[in-house]
Amino acid sequence: MATILPSPPRVGMVSLGCPKNLVDSERILTKLRGDGYAMSPDYAGADIVLVNTCGFLDSAKEESLEAIGEAIAENGRVIVTGCMGKDADAIRARFPQVLAVTGAHQYEQVVGAVHAAAPVVRSPYLDLVPGGAVEDTDLKLTPRHYSYLKISEGCNHRCSFCIIPSLRGDLVSRRPDAILREAEKLVAAGTKELLVISQDTSAYGLDLRHASWPRKSGGEVRAHMTDLARELGRIAPWVRLHYVYPYPHVDQVIPLMADGLVLPYLDIPFQHAAPSVLKRMKRPANDAKVLERIRGWRAICPDIAIRSTFVVGFPGETEADFEYLLEWLGEAQLDRVGAFRFEPVAGAAANLLPDHVPEAVKEERYARIMERTAAISTAKLAAKIGRTLEVIVDAVDLEGGATGRSQADAPEIDGEVFLRDAAHLRVGDIVSVVVEDADEHDLYGVPVAA
Fold first, then answer.
1. Are 206 and 247 in contact (CB under 8 A)?
2. Most buried among 68, 118, 440, 441, using CB within 10 Å?
3. β-bridge partners, 82
4. For residues 355-370, b (16+ Cβ closer than 10 Å) or e, as one string?
C-alpha cells in the first residue's frame, strides 16, 4: 500500500506599506516554508492568512484595517503583524476574532503564532530531509531580477511628524559581511538590481562604530555606507540607494556613481525647504548648503537622478513658506518628486503644534507642488530624447513590446521606459535603448540593434 504524505498547511500573505515591510514579509514566508508550510496565492486555499500592516499614517492604518477585515471575511483565520501591531488593542477592538497580533520585524513571534494556529503534521518521510523538504532558497515577493536588500532597522532621528522610532526602535545595523553574503546569494539566484533600503541608509553602521568584519571571500569590509555601496557595486550589475539623508559623507558615494559601481540615483527625503518648517519638523535646515551640494554632485556625476518626497500643509506652514519651497524646487530641479498632505499620526509630536493648516489649503498647495514638479519632470525627460540609455526589462508583452526602467527609475515609484521592437528581450535583460519620445513621467524608445 502506498504511503500518503500529509499535506502541509498553506499560508497566505497580504503585505502592505513600504519595501521594508515587503522584506519582512519575505523573511517570514521563507522561515515558514523552511518549517514545512506551503504558500497560498489566495484566501480560499489558505489555512491561515498573515496581514503585514503599515501604521505610518492614519490613512495607511485605515487601509490596513480594511485589509484585515477583508481577510477575515474571505478566510476567517487571520494573524496580524507589522507596524500597526503596536496598536494591538485597536485591532482587537475592531476585529476580536484575529488569532494573534505581533509588531514590526518580530519574526519569531509571528512564526510562533502560525505554528500555534496551524501546526505542521510531522512525517518521518519529510522531517528526515534537511530544511523540511523545501528548497534551500529564500522566498521572494518581488520579480526574480530585482531584490530589496535591507541593511538596518530603526532610526535615531526624532522628526516631529514621524512615529517610526516608536514602531521599529532605534538604529540597528546588520553586519556588513552578512549583507554582502545575502547580496551574493541574491545575484547568484538571478537578481540584477539590488535596492538598498533602511530607515536611514546614510546612518548605516553608526551603532556598530563603523567597525570592520572579515569576509569569507577574503579581506575586510567596514560597516559604513560608502564601503558597503562600493562592495555591493562589485557584486551586482545595478545597485540603487534609497532613503539617504544628506549627511556630509554622502559626497563620497558620488564618485562611485561616476565610476559606474553604483547607479547614479539618490532617494533623499528632504520633506521641505523652508527653514522655519524644517525646524518644526526637527529636520536639518541648511537648504542653501543642500543646493550647493546638489550642484557639486552633478558636477561629478552629470547623470545623477535625485528623487525626494515633500510634506505640504505641515502645522504652521505659511504661504510664504510654501512659496519658498516652490522656488527651492525650481533651483534644485529634482528628477522625481512625490508629495504628501500632512496627516496627524497618533503619537507624533507634530500633532501638538499650533496653527494646523486647513484641509482646503493643503489640497490647493498639493495641486500646485505637483504642477510645478510635473513641469520639471517633463522638461528633464524631454532632454533625454535622442540619447542612448541603459534599461532593465521588467515585462515583455505578446505584441512585441516591453516595459523597463532606466537607471533613473526605481520600481513602482518612478517612471518607466516603453519599448517597441522588443520581442527578442527577456525579463531581467539590461539593454541599450535609444529614447524616441517622452511625456510627463515616462520614456519611449527602441533597443539598439545588436
1. no
2. 68
3. 53
4. ebbeeeebeebbebbe
Whole-angstrom distance, CA of residue 251 vs CA of residue 136: 39
Q: Which residues contact 51 (CB under 8 A, 6 or more apart)?
A: 13, 14, 16, 64, 67, 68, 71, 78, 79, 80, 81, 82
* Grid coordinates belonging to 338: 512625490
Q: How many residues does the chain have?
A: 450
**Smallest Cα–Cα separation from 40: which of 50, 31, 53?**
50
CA angle 245, 24, 410 (to 5 degrees): 50
User: How confident is the chain (450 residues) per 10-residue block, as mean pLDDT?
Assistant: 68 88 85 84 91 83 91 93 87 92 82 88 49 47 89 90 82 95 94 94 95 90 97 97 92 96 96 94 77 95 96 97 97 95 87 94 97 96 98 94 97 95 95 97 92
Run of H or E including 329? helix 319-332
Residues 6 or more apart whose CB falls under 8 angstroms from that of 20 comprise 148, 150, 197, 198, 199
Question: Cα(365)–Cα(329) distance, rounded to whole angstroms?
Answer: 14
Written as one letter, the residue type at 173 is S
Predicted TM-score (pTM) of this structure: 0.79
Which run of H or E residues covers position 371? Answer: helix 359-382
- Cell triple for 353: 503644534
